[in-house]
Amino acid sequence: MDSEKPICVMGAGLVGSLMACYLARRGSRVAVYERRSDMRKGQAEAGRSINLALSERGMTALREIGLADEVLKICIPMRGRMLHAVDGTLTFQPYSKDGKSAILSVSRGDLNIKLMDYAETLPGVEFVFDARCTGVDLRTAEVSLVSETTKEAWSVAASTVLGCDGAFSAVRGSLLRTPRVDYSISHLTHGYKELTIPPGPNGEHRLDKNCLHIWPRGSYMMIALPNLDGSFTVTCFWPFEGENGFDRLDQADWPTVKAFFEAQFADSLSLMPSLEHDFYANKTSALFTVRCWPWSRDGAACLFGDAAHAVVPFFGQGMNAGFEDCTVFNAVLDRQAAASPGSSPDWAAVFAEFQKLRKSNADAIADMALENHIEMRDKVADKLFQLRKKVEALLGTTFPGRFNSRYEMVSFSTIPYRETQRLGLINDEICEELMKGIDDVKDVDLEKAKALIGKYFP
After folding, report:
1. Predicted local confidence at residue 151, as pLDDT
2. Which of 56, 114, 373, 399 has the fewest C-beta atoms lying within 10 Å of its C-beta?
3. How far, CA to CA in Å, does 153 sit from each of 140, 141, 175, 177, 401?
C-alpha cells in the first residue's frame, strides 16, 4: 500500500484520539473520521457514561504520549469503595493493601477533549467530523464515508484503516462480511440509567469525594462517582425484568418510583432534588460484551478498543483496555521498526502480532468484568466477603511483592489481564484455605500462609 496515503483512524473517541497521538508522534500522517459532531463545539452524545475510572493501564498510555500530568488535573482519586447499607450504615473498603492506591474518576468528555486538543498540536493529524463510515474495502483499504450534515458520499484511500469506532463499529461490520470471522454480542439481563447528585450550596461534594460509592442490593445496585464541579454521577444498574426492573419502573408513576428509592436508597433521596425529572428524562441503556476474531484482515484494517472487545463496566477497565491496545500496538510498531530500519510498516505482520498478543487478554478482562458485577452487587456487603478482603490485605502487607489481590493487579499494574486472571484463581485457593474455621482476620495462621504462598509463588 502507498505510504503517502494517510493512516485512517475511524472514530475520534478516547481510543481513536489516543491512537492518533501515538501515530503522529511516530511521524505518521493521520486522518481521523468521526460520525458525531465535534464535542468541543457542543454537548457530548447522550446515553454514554459520563464518568470513567482511569487506572494504571490507561495512565501508562498517557505517560507514553506525554499527557499524564495534564490529565491528572481533571481527575479525582478514589481510594476505595464506600458501601451504603439499606439503613444508611457506611462501610469503607480500600482498593489496595496500604489504602493509598487510587483509581481516578474522570469525565469522558473532558478526557476526550484533552486527547483531541493534544493530537491537533502534532504535525500530520487531521480530524473530520460528521463523517459516517459506511464501509471499508478490505482489498484496497479504501474507506466509504457519508456526511451526516450534507449527505454527500465520498471515499478516502488509506495506507491502512484502524477501527476505533466503538461497540457498533462500521469497520467491524465490513470485516464480518469476509469469510471465517467469529462475532458475538452477549447482553446482560441488567441495564443502566444515569442520575445526578448536584454539588452543595458552596460547590462542595455532598458525599466523600475520594470514594466510589456503592449501594449494593443483591440482584441490583446503584453507584456514584465524583465530578470536579462538586457533583456525583449516579448510575443505577438494575435488571430489565421483574418487580424492581427498568421495564416496570420506567413506566411506573412517580409515587411508585419514589417509594422504591425510599425503601432501598433512602440516604440518597435527599441528595437528588431533580430525581423525578432525571429518572424519566434519562434513557435506560443496555449492557453487553462484544467478542470478535480475527480483529484484522491482511494489512487493510484492524480493530481496537470496543470495536474488538467491548466489556461491561464493572471492573472499570473498558477505556483502560482500549488504551492498553494502543500501547501494545505502538510497541509492536517499535519492534518492527527496529528490525527493519527505514522501512514502511508491514501492516499485515503488525496486525497479526498485535491481535495475537491482545486477544486472550481481552477475553480475560471481559470474563473478570462479568464476575465483578456479581461481586459489586451481591458480595461486597457480605461478611464473609469482607473478611476475605481483610485477609487479602493482610497477606499483601505481610508478604509484599509475593501476594497481590486480583483487583490490585488489574487496576494498579500492567500485568497482562490473562495472567492476573490466572493468579487470581491461585489467590482464591490460598484465601479459602486460610479462612477455614475463622471469622476474624487476626486468627489467620501466618505460618500456614507463608507455606501456601511459598508453594504457589516460589
Report:
1. 97
2. 399
3. 18, 17, 21, 21, 57
